[in-house]
Amino acid sequence: MAKSSSSKIKIMIGSTVYGFPDQLAAICDVIESYGYEAINSHRGTMRVDPTLSNLENCLQAVHDCDAFLGIIRPYYGSGNINGVNITFEEMKLAMKLKKPYWFLVHRDVTFARQLFRNLVPKGDIENYELKKNHIFDMRTLEVYDYVIKNGEPLETRTGNWAQEFYKLDEALTYVRTQFQDIDSIKEMVTRSKNK
């Protein structure tokens, strides 16, 4: 008899899609192969309340999931509502709710961060403009800095790991390593719910 999806651990995979749907599907497939329920808006596995906005539905999915996997890519995403980015809001909420969370960060983001730190006068990144393009969005640096808790003393930071990847197989290695031990994930989920 098949296990009902309501008894499966729900792992939400953040809503980063633009130029990434095949890779996103592969990540969801790996997570599902271990017996989890992969919640993802693009994949259509996220419950949608038609009376709510896209942002509200995505944030509700963060509330409803047991754990969260965020992906930081060079594109800020198309889910921007009045200056609010859905993917970033999902990440912030997962961290605020103290859900077990993991982050993948594309190498282009970490490379650009180092590049701009060396090119832009110290403290003046807000005044540095990059022409709008489909190659890189500077706002992703803010997302990355938020996730790694930049500005907090390094020696006391926790929950600030963001695994760099460039190719899909690198991302999948990290996903497999984190999620293959379902008992460990169950223990983390239980611990987070008891806080």
Automatic annotation (TrEMBL):
Taxonomy, superkingdom: Bacteria
Domain DUF4062: 10-93
Pfam families attached to this UniProt entry: DUF4062
UniProt-recorded name of the protein: DUF4062 domain-containing protein
Source organism per UniProt: Sphingobacterium siyangense
